[in-house]
Write a structure and sequence with these properties.
The structure is a homodimer of 285-residue chains.
Chain A (H helix, E strand, L loop, with lengths): L1 H4 L18 H19 L4 H12 L9 H15 L5 H9 L3 H10 L26 H7 L3 H9 L9 H7 L3 H12 L4 H13 L7 H7 L1 H13 L10 H4 L2 H14 L4 H16 L5
Chain lengths: 285, 285
C-alpha cells in the first residue's frame, strides 16, 4: 500500500492518479485482501499456497489485477524474513526450495484474475500460465517446480526481455535489495522515498519494464528508461536519491505517461518488494 | 482506509492532503496495524480486548493517534456483523453487553497513544481516560462497564456536547446507519461517496464535531457545520448526495479548514463506521 500511495510514480496508479479502469482504492482493497495469504507465508506456509491465497484475497475488488506481480516477489521475501534471513541468500534458499505443488498453486492463482503476460516458451505451450488450473496436469507431468517455471519465463524463447519478476526470483532479487538499500539511505517521508525508488528502477540499465515491453514493445520500454534517467534516475549511483531525483520533473513525466497509456507495472512490483525489505530493516512510517 | 483516502474531506488528512504532523501513509499503516484487533472482534473476542489490541496495532507508526475514535465505533460494529445482526438493535446488544473488564481494557488502550479528549465528569476525576491503565483500579472500584463509561462521556457535566462517538454507542449508532444508507443510495466510486458522506455528517443538526469543539470551541464547530451546509451537506435529505453535494466547492472548504487548523476528526470516525456498514451491505470497491 505504501508503494501505490507513493507519488508521482509516472504511468501508474498512485495517491494522486487513477487509471481509467483501475482506481487507487482498488489497490488498497487488494492490499488488504492479500494480507491473509501474506500472513500464511509469515507462518511458514508453502510459497505456492501462500501466493494463491494472497491473489485470491487481492482479487476481491472490482478492478481486476492490482498486485499479482508484487505478491510474487513479496511471498518469498516474507518467508525469508520469517525464517530470519532476509537477504539474497535467504530468499534464494526459499525460491530454490519450491516444489511441483508450489508450481501447481501458482497456476491456480491465474484462475482468480486476468494478468497481462507474454507468450509461453515455444517448446512448452502447455505451460502457458493463462491456462490457470487447467495447466496443473502438464505441470505435474513435466515435474516442474515453481523455480523451474520462473527459469522458463526468464529464458523465454521469443526474444523479449523475459519477465522482470521471474528474473528477480532466479538471481537473488538484486533490484529489490539494491532499491531497499537506496530507500534506507534516502531521506524524508517514506512515500517520497518510494517515488524516487520507482524512478531509479525505471532507469535501470539491467532491466526494461516487462509490462511496458509486453504492451507497447521493447522500443517504448527503452524510451521510458531514457526519460526516467532525464529526471535523475540512476540505480547505480552512490548519491542518495533525494540529491539526484527531481520529483517535480517526474510529475510532468507522470502526466505524459498517463496520456500515452504507458504503465510500468513491473517496476512498481519491485518498489513494493524493496519497501518491504526497507521496513524490515528499520525504515519507519 | 477508504475513509482516509476519500477526498476532499475538509480539514482532515485525505488522499490529497497531509497535516503538518500527520501524514496519509500513517493512516494506512494505522489501518493495517489495527487489523489484528478487528479480526479478534470478528472472531468474537470481548469488545475491550479487541479494541485495546486494535489500538496497539494502530499505534505502530510514528504519527501518533490516527484511528482511535474510528476503532471505538468499528469494534462493536464488527462484533455485531460477525453475530449476524449488523443493525441498531444488534450493535446495541453488543455495547450493552460490555463489562467492567471491557472498560479496563478501554483505559489500557490510552497507554498506547495520546488522544485529544475533553475533561472528565466533575464528580469522577479518577475516571479521566488520560490516566490510561492507572485508572483501572478506579474502574474496578466503581464497577463501571464500558457502556457506563460511554454514558458518562455523553452526560459530561461541563456543558460541552459530550463525545460524538460515545453518543453513537448509547443511541444505536444513528449517524453511522443513516450515513451507511446514504452511501448505499449514492452513486459513483466509493471514495467520492465517502467524501460526500463526510460533508453530510459535518452538516448534521444533531451533532457538532467533537474534535473541533474540543480544540476550537463550540462556536467554531457550529461555523464548520454551517459551511458544510453551504456546499450541500444535509443528512436529513432524501435526495442522493451526488445530486446535492458539490465536491469542487468542498475542495475550497478543504483548503480553508486546513489553513485554519480546523480538523473535524470525529466526523471522519463516523464516516469510517458508515463505510464498514455500507460494504457489509454490498457496496463494492
Amino acid at each position: 500500500m505504501l508503494e501505490v500511495a507513493g507519488t508521482p510514480k509516472p504511468g501508474n496508479v498512485d495517491r494522486r492518479r487513477d487509471l481509467d479502469d483501475l482506481r487507487f482504492e482498488q489497490f488498497l482493497a487488494g492490499g488488504v485482501g492479500s494480507g491473509r495469504g501474506l500472513r500464511r507465508a509469515a507462518g511458514g506456509a508453502p510459497v505456492g499456497e501462500a501466493f494463491e491465497r494472497a491473489v485470491d484475497g487481492m482479487s476481491q475488488q472490482s478492478g481486476g489485477n492490482t498486485q499479482f506481480g508484487c505478491l510474487l516477489l513479496l511471498v518469498p521475501l516474507v518467508r525469508a524474513a520469517a525464517a530470519g534471513d532476509l537477504s539474497p541468500a535467504g530468499v534464494t534458499d526459499v525460491v530454490e526450495g519450491t516444489t511441483v505443488e508450489d508450481a501447481a498453486d501458482f497456476y491456480r492463482a491465474f484462475d482468480h484474475v486476468a494478468v497481462a503476460v507474454g507468450d509461453p516458451p515455444a517448446d512448452a505451450p502447455d505451460l502457458d500460465v493463462r491456462h490457470g488450473s487447467d495447466a496443473v496436469s502438464a505441470v505435474r507431468e513435466r515435474g516442474v517446480t515453481l523455480y523451474d517455471v520462473m527459469e522458463l519465463a526468464v529464458e523465454r524463447g521469443d526474444g523479449s526481455s523475459g519477465d522482470g519478476n521471474a528474473r528477480e526470483w532466479v538471481s537473488g532479487f538484486p533490484r529489490t535489495f539494491r532499491a531497499a538499500e537506496s530507500i534506507g539511505a534516502d531521506e524524508g517521508p517514506v512515500l517520497d522515498r518510494a517515488a524516487r525508488a520507482f524512478v531509479d528502477l525505471l532507469a535501470d540499465d539491467a532491466e526494461l519494464d516487462t509490462l511496458v515491453a509486453t504492451q507497447h514493445g521493447p522500443e517504448r520500454a527503452r524510451e521510458v528508461r531514457r526519460r526516467a534517467r532525464e529526471v535523475g534516475g540512476d540505480p547505480q549511483s552512490t548519491e542518495p536519491p533525494v540529491e539526484r531525483i527531481d520529483l517535480d520533473a517526474a510529475e510532468a513525466l507522470a502526466e505524459e505517461f498517463a496520456a500515452d497509456g504507458v504503465n510500468p507495472g513491473t517496476t512498481a512490483d519491485a518498489v513494493a518488494a524493496a519497501l518491504f525489505v526497507a521496513l524490515e530493516r528499520g525504515v519507519t512510517v
